[in-house]
Amino acid sequence: MRVRKHTCDCMATIYELCYAGGLLFIRRTIRELDSRVAHETDRLITVRMEDLWMRLILGQAR
Length: 62
Known about the structure:
- By secondary structure, the protein is an alpha+beta fold.
- Helix content is 19%, strand content 47%.
- Strands 1-2-3-4 form a 4-stranded antiparallel sheet, with helices on one face.
- Strand 2 (13-20) and strand 3 (23-32) form a beta hairpin.
- The two termini are 23 Å apart.
């Protein structure tokens, strides 16, 4: 798995656009006190996931 893009890690919630096995997915990591909780989207083809990534960054997706 490789991280292709990411948001600033200065915030409590970090988003990463990850690549693995020819597919992309988004990982959201929430840092609280001394713990980290990560959630991942389903893996999708590049075109669909890059569109979702852009909407997420622009605040148009949740």
